[in-house]
Backbone:
């Protein structure tokens, strides 16, 4: 078994492999993609998907509540309990790594490092919605969104790989757990339906509306790319 010093050194080695570049374009891309504001239209599109494909307000509120519960469990454990308890400095704020960690436009982040709320939050939402909608393409899109967010945290040097890994594991567990709770409550207010149609997923979500979300996700990536080009000029 590896001792703690070797694990820490491995953590740093993997971080340095991902961290930074000599490209202002990639710096701008990572900074854009890591911002929650960049994804506002994706959140709106997901809300649109929920409203369009659920007839009752009780169903809509249940899904919105489930999403809020995902974020509460994912981010709440990280920000409210684990980070203050472990108190691990971010690589970008670690004095011993000063001048070694590549900072994009001086971005350092705030607070502690372990574990990544970005990873936990995005994975919990991606897993929950993937189970809710049951579309392979949609699942790939949502997981890609989460993975990209995880990459930005490593590239910017504000998290160690172990922070991201634990955040991913916790996010996946939260997404599954909240979905199970959601289904238990959903069955109490809605008759069980199984959709067999080329226009809907097996859980009754319109493929057209799913495509709307995927198009918004794609356009957001395009926006990030264009903005990064402008920043690099």
Residues:
């Amino acid at each position: 078994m590896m001792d703690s010093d070797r694990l820490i050194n491995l953590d740093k080695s993997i971080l340095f492999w991902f961290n930074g570049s000599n490209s202002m374009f990639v710096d701008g891309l990572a900074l854009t993609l890591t911002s929650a504001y960049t994804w506002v239209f994706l959140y709106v599109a997901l809300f649109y998907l929920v409203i369009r494909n659920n007839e009752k307000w009780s169903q809509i509120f249940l899904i919105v509540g489930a999403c809020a519960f995902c974020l509460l469990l994912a981010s709440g454990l990280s920000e409210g309990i684990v980070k203050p308890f472990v108190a691990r400095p971010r690589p970008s704020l670690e004095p011993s790594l000063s001048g070694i960690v590549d900072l994009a436009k001086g971005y350092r982040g705030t607070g502690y490092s372990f574990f990544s709320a970005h990873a936990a939050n995005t994975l919990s939402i991606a897993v929950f919605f993937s189970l809710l909608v049951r579309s392979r393409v949609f699942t790939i899109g949502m997981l890609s969104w989460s993975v990209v967010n995880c990459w930005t945290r490593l590239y910017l040097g504000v998290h160690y790989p172990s922070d991201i890994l634990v955040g991913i594991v916790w996010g996946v567990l939260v997404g599954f757990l909240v979905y199970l709770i959601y289904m238990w409550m959903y069955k109490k207010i809605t008759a069980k339906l199984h959709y067999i149609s080329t226009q809907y997923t097996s859980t009754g979500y319109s493929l057209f509306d799913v495509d709307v979300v995927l198009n918004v996700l794609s356009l957001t990536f395009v926006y990030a790319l264009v903005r990064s080009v402008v920043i690099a000029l």
User: Anything to note?
Assistant: The chain has eight helices and no strands. The radius of gyration is 19 Å. The mean pLDDT is 93.
